[in-house]
């Protein structure tokens, strides 16, 4: 851990990372699924739960059996199959268009070639696919190819704003750049920051009523100082 932390230039962010890792554990950066699976599953994950994402993906694979069959299926049939993921009517044509582009440009249903591209070029290529934004592209490049990028989902964004790492008006897309500039460009640190911050947002720093009492970061949290500690002091 000491070697990891020595790469931080900001002591406050170093402390945030250290506490998050001690709280949620450090994970090895190994691909959890092959790149095409990661890409399509992440497209399905937008605005739904992890359970429903996995259910929709498995239903799609079980029903169609191949990327070729998914691409050529009637859009309505695909949408019905992935319905658990929510907004299936929009996701189905995006998935089919993405598969079509991948096959037409690469001659196979594979994005393994992205591992050999410069990271900026790979991100641009992925974001040229319909339904793929910076979060999905960054997640694929970090999770599958261990590239030095940082996916910022709604949980990472919320926790980072409350801590004061990014400003209150910094949107999710801009947060990818701001947070990446602040963190060491070391893939496993970026990966563990993403995973641990996501867990923190799911378990304690929830959207509606943050669970500040047990939070190990509250002494570093701008939101807590203003909305909890400040109000208590004013009483």
- What would you say the CATH architecture of the largest domain is? Orthogonal Bundle
Calculate Rg over CA atoms.
19 Å
Q: What is the residue-averaged pLDDT?
A: 95
The H-and-E topology, N to C, reads as HHHHHHHHHHHHH
Q: Span between N and C termini?
A: 41 Å
Biggest pleated sheet:
none
Briefly say what this structure is.
With 235 residues, the chain is an all-alpha fold. It has helices spanning 2-5, 11-24, 35-45, 50-64, 67-72, 75-81, 88-106, 119-127, 134-145, 154-163, 172-182, 187-203, 222-234.
Architecture overview:
- With 235 residues, this protein is mainly alpha-helical.
- The protein has 2 domains: 2-29 and 150-203, Endonuclease Iii, domain 2; 35-145, Hypothetical protein, domain 2 (Endonuclease III, domain 1, Orthogonal Bundle).
- The protein contains 13 helices and no strands.
- The chain starts with a helix and ends with a helix.
- The relative contact order is 0.13.
Describe how the helices and strands are arranged.
Blueprint lengths: L1 H4 L5 H14 L10 H11 L4 H15 L2 H6 L2 H7 L6 H19 L12 H9 L6 H12 L8 H10 L8 H11 L4 H17 L18 H13 L1
Please name the defining characteristics of this protein.
235 residues, mainly alpha, Endonuclease Iii, domain 2, Endonuclease III, domain 1, 13 helices
């Amino acid at each position: 851990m000491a070697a990891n932390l020595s790469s931080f230039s900001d002591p406050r962010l170093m402390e945030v990372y250290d506490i998050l890792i001690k709280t949620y554990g450090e994970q090895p950066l190994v691909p959890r699924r092959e790149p095409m699976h990661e890409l399509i599953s992440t497209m399905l994950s937008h605005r739904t739960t992890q359970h429903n994402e996995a259910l929709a993906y498995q239903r799609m694979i079980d029903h169609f059996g191949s990327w070729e069959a998914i691409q050529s299926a009637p859009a309505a049939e695909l949408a019905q199959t992935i319905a658990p993921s929510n907004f299936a009517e929009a996701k189905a044509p995006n998935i089919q268009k993405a598969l079509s582009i991948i096959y037409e440009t690469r001659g196979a249903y594979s994005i393994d070639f992205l591992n050999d591209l410069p990271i900026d070029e790979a991100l641009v290529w992925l974001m040229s696919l319909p339904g793929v934004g910076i979060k999905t592209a960054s997640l694929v490049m970090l999770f599958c190819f261990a590239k030095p990028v940082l996916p910022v989902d709604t949980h990472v964004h919320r926790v980072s704003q409350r801590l004061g790492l990014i400003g209150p008006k910094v949107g999710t897309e801009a947060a990818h750049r701001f947070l990446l500039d602040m963190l060491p460009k070391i893939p496993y640190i970026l990966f563990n920051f993403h995973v641990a911050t996501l867990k923190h947002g799911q378990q304690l720093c929830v959207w509606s009523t943050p669970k500040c009492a047990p939070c190990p970061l509250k002494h570093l949290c701008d939101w807590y100082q203003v909305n909890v500690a400040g109000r208590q002091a004013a009483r």
